[in-house]
Amino acid sequence: MENRRNPRVNRPTYNRNANQRPQFRPSEDEMVFGIQSVIETLKSDQQIDKLYMEKGLSNPDIQNLAFQNRVTIQRVPVERLDRLTRKNHQGVVCLIAQVQYVKLSNVIADVYERGETPFFLLLDRITDVRNFGAIARTAECTGVQCIVIPGRGAAAINSDAMKTSSGALNHISVCREPDLTETVKYLQESGITVVACTEKSSRDLYERSTDLTGPIAVIMGSEEDGISPELLRMVDTHVKIPLLGAVGSLNVSVATGVVLYEAVRQRSMRVEE
User: Fold this and answer.
1) Where's the RNA 2-O ribose methyltransferase substrate binding domain (predicted)?
2) Pick from 154, 40, 26, 153: which is nearest to 85 by CA?
3) Does one domain contain both 113 and 86?
4) Whose CB among 36, 47, 64, 87 lies 3.0–4.6 Å from 97's, allowing a Cys bridge?
5) Domains in the chain, number
6) Same domain, 92 and 172
């Protein structure tokens, strides 16, 4: 449901290949590099958003600490690390999280204890920080209690994401899960209906049979190829946004807003009844 876009950014470093997206260099205060510095960061209370390690490099201390902290190590070419920093990174760079991640099980328990109806949002490989920030802003405004992202293949929650969210990321829970397939199973076992928004669906979002009033978790997919086939096979139901123009897709942040506000509309109507 999403299309490719060319966002305006503040600090782009362009690759010569015109078919590739701009690469972004984090600010110095968002990044830690060097073996010992990364080890000490992993030992501290700071949460890590991304941990990049050069392909072929082995460091048991970093690998063990990352495993203990549930931080996914992303193996990348040294050129990727060189684009992040021109300093001596020794083959390892980590990005400091701008938010405090929480456990999904705790969020679910808290929501039920407060007597609320679960309203969650899962993002499958949303990679653009501006899209993520805009989605977070809409999610917070619509009363979503939690955004769930994968440990690998998701946008970094950096200062750009925080700015684009207009502070919303300070007010909404964010969970980072290593495996979204296991997350979907856990949500379903917790009594939450998982709804995929995809153009592959035969069900219109605005059909009478589309019920978004109960405990739900909405999944939105990657800017490039939408929701992964594995997740689509697992969800409880699919919906699609009707498109009446010549363009065949919406930007993912716009599409998310459409779906979430339809849920708000249905829930408001149910309360009034």
Assistant:
1) 31-102
2) 26
3) no
4) 47
5) 2
6) no
Q: Quote the strand ranges of the chain, DSSP E.
A: 12-13, 23-24, 31-33, 48-54, 73-76, 92-96, 119-123, 146-150, 173-177, 193-197, 216-220, 237-239
Q: Count CB atoms within 10 A of the CB of residue 235.
A: 21
pLDDT at 139: 97
Report how far residue 237's alpha carbon sits from residue 203's, in angstroms, rounded to the nearest whole number: 9
Task: Dig out the tokens for 204 from the structure.
Answer: 């219109």
Q: Is the pLDDT of residue 10 over 90?
A: no
* Percentage of residues in the chain having pLDDT higher than 70: 88
- The H or E element spanning position 81 is helix 78-84
Q: Residue written as tokens 């979907």?
A: 184
What pTM did the predictor assign? 0.79
Under 8 Å between Cβ of 120 and 192? yes
pLDDT of residue 27: 67
Which of 70, 96, 122 terminates a domain? The answer is 96
Using 50, 70 and 90 to split pLDDT, how confident is the model at 21?
very low
111 and 92, same domain (yes or no):
no
Q: Residues 239, 122: one domain?
A: yes
CB burial string 12-31: b at 16+ within 10 A, e below: eeeeeeeeebeebebeeebb
Range of the domain at 72: 12-96
